[in-house]
Design brief:
single chain, 352 residues, alpha/beta, Pyrimidine Nucleoside Phosphorylase, Chain A, domain 2, seven-stranded mixed sheet, 17 helices, glycosyltransferase, anthranilate phosphoribosyltransferase activity, amino-acid biosynthesis
Length: 352
């Protein structure tokens, strides 16, 4: 048993009247002791549920990010005129709406915008379809790459995937506790703004509940990251919904510059999301999109692609971004990027 961890547990788990928030240094220490298994299983489980009940502060999230920064993997800079975008997508995946993120990542990489993703396998508490499964369905298996191999694919294609079981096993061990306590702990919030990149990057973080934006702002400010984007997206992802107004927070110099309110109807898209049926069906639909075939999921790809091309500075507005997305999908350029990624991955693995 760790007496030091027990003291931190007592602070967050003492209830409404006597409980206390952790300092940034204490939160970092607690996260490190959990990641390194210096705390006992009983202590870790108690901390995670107590901290969820208490709710995290931005300072505590900053401390947890400090621990991830010290112990976790990082991709390094590549030859690109654009800062990479790091997508903060919930690790426990999607169950209700069909995801489109791999198509958007391929689209951005096609126009020279590097993108970094991070995640794992199916995991608690939702056990929805994760990014890694979708990429595997498209013929790209990032799970087999070492970090050095991931770096080479990232440098070659502009797409990187930090896969926790392979690249950050200390963090992967925490997921068993999530399953056992049956709730998503504050670490799940922190993961949305984790940046496994050694240089400056543009963080785009999905979220569900409005107070989360304030936590993001507090944590990233303490970490010296003052410009980022938040998306109240589908199931907490970075994907814009079609059935409701998409709310996007644009932060610069640690200030909320504006909340964009984007309605799919204003851009001639139907006000409905594509339901998730199965991983196989979603992969088949994405493959059809890459062939330029019209579909409801193609409409979702156009809606999201237009937004990301605009906000990346590739296009001057949403409408031109939507038009460019349609052109790149129908002329086969995005499909070519997928083939390039697949070939890069294969050659990298053969090179060892």
């Amino acid at each position: 048993m760790s007496n030091a961890f027990r003291d931190l547990l007592k602070k967050v788990g003492s209830g409404v009247h006597t409980g206390e928030d952790l300092t940034r240094a204490e939160a970092m220490a607690a996260a490190k002791m959990m990641l390194l298994q210096e705390a006992t299983p009983a202590q870790i489980g108690a901390f995670l549920i107590a901290h969820r009940i208490k709710r995290p502060t931005g300072e505590e999230l900053a401390g947890m990010l400090d621990a991830y920064d010290e112990l976790g993997p990082k991709l390094t800079a590549i030859d690109s005129a654009l800062q990479p975008i790091v997508l903060g997508i919930p690790y426990d995946g999607r169950l209700r709406t069909a995801p489109i993120s791999p198509i958007i990542v391929l689209l951005l990489a096609t126009v020279g915008q590097p993108v970094i993703m991070h995640g794992s396998d199916r995991m608690p508490t939702k056990y929805g379809v994760p990014l890694i499964d979708l990429w595997q369905g498209l013929g790209v298996d990032f799970s087999k790459l070492s970090l050095a191999e991931t770096q080479r694919v990232f440098a070659t294609t502009g797409i990187g995937f930090v896969y926790l079981p392979q690249h950050f096993p200390q963090a992967q061990t925490i997921f068993d506790y999530r399953d056992q306590i049956g709730k998503r702990p504050p670490l799940a919030t922190m993961e949305l703004i984790w940046c496994p990149y050694a240089e400056d990057a543009r963080i785009v973080a999905g979220f569900v509940h409005p107070p989360t934006e304030g936590m993001f702002q507090g944590a990233l400010s303490l970490r010296g990251i003052s410009s980022f984007t938040t998306v109240k997206g589908l199931e907490g992802s970075c994907e814009l919904p079609r059935d409701r107004t998409a709310i996007v927070g644009v932060f610069a110099d640690n200030t909320l510059v504006e909340h964009l309110h984007l309605s799919a109807r204003d851009y001639d898209f139907a006000s409905k999301n594509v339901p998730f049926e199965s991983t196989a069906q979603t992969v088949a639909d994405m493959q059809a999109i890459l062939q330029g075939k019209p579909s409801e999921l193609m409409q979702t790809a156009l809606w999201n692609g237009g937004f990301y091309l605009w906000r990346s500075g590739i296009c001057e507005d949403m409408r031109s971004g939507i038009a460019m997305t349609e052109e790149l999908l129908t002329n086969g350029k995005v499909a070519q990027k997928l083939q390039e990624v697949s070939q890069s991955l294969s050659s990298t693995m053969l090179a060892g």
